[in-house]
Each structure stands twice: as C-alpha cells, then as structure tokens.
C-alpha cells in the first residue's frame, strides 16, 4: 500500500506565499502613515514608538479596540474593499472622545482565503484613515482561517492608542444647563448592520445594485458602504477653541446609550429629534423592516456620529469651529437635572 504524501500547509488551506505577497503590497501604505516618533525596525516582532517628545505635562495613554462588524459582509457581497479600512480607523474616535490625541494604530485582518489584492485594498483604506486621524499605522496581523471562514469572508479589528494630559481627560464638569451639539454622520458608520441587512434584504428584498431609494444617484451598496467620518482632527480643534465638557461617540447603543455614558450623577440629557438632518438611509431601513422608533433610536446613530457637551454660551462657537473643520453640526439638546436618563423627543 502506497504511503500518503506528506501534508503541506498549502494543502491544508494556508498559502504562505500569498501572505508574503500581501505584506509586500502593503508596506508602502503602512510607511505613508509614519510619524517622527516611529522607530524603524523591520526585523522586530512589535512596532516601536518613542514617547520621549510627547508634549504632555502628565501624560496618560488611552487605548481602545473595536471592529467593523457585519459591515464587512456588505463589502464582501459588493466586492468593494477600499473604504472599509477607513471605517476601522473611525472606531478609534473612541479615544478622541476621552480627550486624547491619536498616536498609533494596529489592525488585525482574518480571512477565509488570503487574496493579496483584497488585503491591499483594505490596508490602503486603513492607511488613508490613519493619515486623516493622525495615527501611525504601527503594525498589524493577517491570518488565514480555511474551513473556519468561507472564501471571500473577512473580519477587521483595530487597536488605537492615544495620549492626553491627565487634567484634560473627558468627561469633566458636565452639569445642568450644558448644551448638546451633534456632529453629522452621513451614514450608519459600523453600527446596526445586522438589523439593517435583515430589514433591507430579508424583509425588503432589496438588492445592493439597485438605487438606494427612488431617484438616488448611487446604489444601495454604495450607500451602505459610505465610510465613517473620522472626527479626531476636528475634535482636537474644538477642544482648543471651545470649552468642552464631554464628547460622546455614537456607536452601538445609539444616542441614548452613548450620551448616557458621559452623564454625572443627578443629570439627564434631553435630545430633540428633528433638530438635525437625518440621512435618508435610516428611513429606508426603518420602512423595510417596519422597525419601531424606539428600536431605531436604540440601535442607530440616526445621522449624529459624535455629541459634544459644551456650556450653553458656547453653542455658536462650537458649531462654527466644527464648520471650519468641514463638519455640519446642530444644537440638538440640553443637560438637565435628573436621574441619568437620556430622552429623545420629536420637535
């Protein structure tokens, strides 16, 4: 009886050579994000970043981890990977919401089958997002999971690190009478896609290649893949120009779940729906799935990607500062005395 040939990694489904080709393709993208603090050491097992010259009196590192979730499934079905990396860096705004400045970022990409061209597109987006935010893309990892993930499937996770002066960390000094300034988000960011996909595709029988809505100038797929806004540079400017008491990044949990995180004891937030322009895509999702208002408010950002808590006297100043950073913003509510609730009412 003939002996079986020795099994190789490639026969098991992992292509080491494809991984090497992918690494070669993305090197220029990674290098394009480097800051002076990055210590070049291509032989190392970890990224190196010097903190000696950081301009903080009492520095605190702020770190966060997040991923793009099932928005990756939309990218896979559309075969469009050039913006999902921007979405990943947008999750790093969690650190900006605590008053931190971006320092460095790392990504982790897991795939069913490693396609160097797809990796190249994804990392090009990550690098572009890092340049916008001010992160150095300090490293990352790719892993191929044949048998555990389908060919074409991928997941994308990021790790963000920033720094702030301890005395300037947010939230601080939030109190009754403060105003809520909402900053525009043109799409869903990376939140609620499981519900949106079920509503649009399973209930509404919509297709990615059809118009996003009657008369729309782009497809539903393109609308669902609108990249997340990266707020970090605008928030840094806002903190320099305006007294900011808190920032709430509107991610999973919607406005109510995330604004609640910056409320001190004895305060509540009152938000007025109708005081800002809600993107059409939310109406399409709600109609297709016959979703209740309360569920929409609990899951989606509804067109507000970040909320700044500022003194009532600084509302106009805050909106003008954000406009100089090319972000639309609105006065959407107030902080009042109460028991920690966040209520949304319609104007």
Properties at a glance:
alpha+beta, four-stranded mixed sheet
Our count of helices gives 13
Q: Secondary-structure element order, as H and E?
A: HHEEEHHHEHEEEHHHEHEHHEHEE
Query: Unreliable segments (pLDDT under 50, ≥5 consecutive)?
Result: none
Helix content: 25-40%
Task: Describe the protein's architecture and organization.
The protein has 347 residues and is an alpha+beta fold. Helix content is 33%, strand content 24%. Strands 8-10-7-11-9-12 form a six-stranded mixed β-sheet. Strand 4 (101-111), helix 6 (116-133) and strand 5 form a beta-alpha-beta unit. Helix 2 packs parallel to helix 6 and helix 9 (232-241) packs across helix 13 (315-324). The protein is globular, with a radius of gyration of 22 Å. The model has no long low-confidence stretch (mean pLDDT 95).
């Amino acid at each position: 009886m003939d002996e079986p040939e020795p099994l190789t990694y490639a026969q098991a489904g992992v292509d080491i050579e494809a991984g090497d080709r992918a690494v070669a393709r993305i090197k220029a993208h990674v290098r394009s994000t480097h800051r002076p603090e990055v210590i070049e050491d291509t032989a190392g097992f970890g990224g190196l970043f010097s903190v000696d010259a950081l301009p903080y009196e009492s520095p605190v590192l702020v770190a966060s981890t997040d991923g793009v979730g099932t928005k990756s499934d939309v990218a896979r079905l559309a075969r469009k990977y050039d913006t999902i990396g921007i979405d990943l860096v947008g999750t790093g705004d969690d650190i900006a919401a605590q008053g931190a400045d971006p320092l460095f970022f790392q990504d982790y990409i897991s795939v069913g089958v490693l396609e160097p061209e797809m990796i190249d597109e994804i990392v090009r987006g990550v690098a572009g997002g890092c340049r916008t935010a001010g992160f150095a893309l300090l490293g990352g990892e790719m892993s191929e999971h044949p048998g555990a993930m389908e060919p074409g499937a991928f997941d994308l996770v990021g790790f963000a690190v920033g720094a702030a002066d301890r005395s300037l960390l947010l939230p601080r000094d939030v109190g009754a009478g403060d105003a809520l300034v909402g900053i525009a988000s043109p799409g869903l960011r990376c939140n609620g896609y499981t519900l949106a996909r079920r509503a649009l595709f399973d209930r509404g029988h919509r297709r990615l290649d059809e118009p996003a809505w009657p008369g729309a100038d782009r497809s539903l797929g393109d609308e669902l893949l609108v990249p997340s806004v990266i707020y970090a540079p605008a928030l840094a400017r806002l903190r320099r120009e305006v007294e900011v008491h808190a920032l709430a990044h509107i991610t999973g949990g919607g406005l109510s779940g995330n604004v609640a995180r910056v409320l001190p004891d004895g305060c509540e937030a009152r938000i007025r729906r109708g005081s800002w322009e809600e993107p059409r895509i939310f109406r399409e999702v709600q109609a297709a799935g016959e979703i209740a208002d309360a569920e929409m408010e609990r899951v989606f950002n509804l067109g507000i990607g970040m909320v700044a808590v500022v003194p009532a006297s600084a509302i106009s100043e805050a909106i003008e500062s954000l406009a100089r950073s090319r972000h639309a913003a609105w006065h959407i509510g107030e902080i009042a005395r109460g028991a920690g609730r966040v209520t949304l009412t319609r104007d």
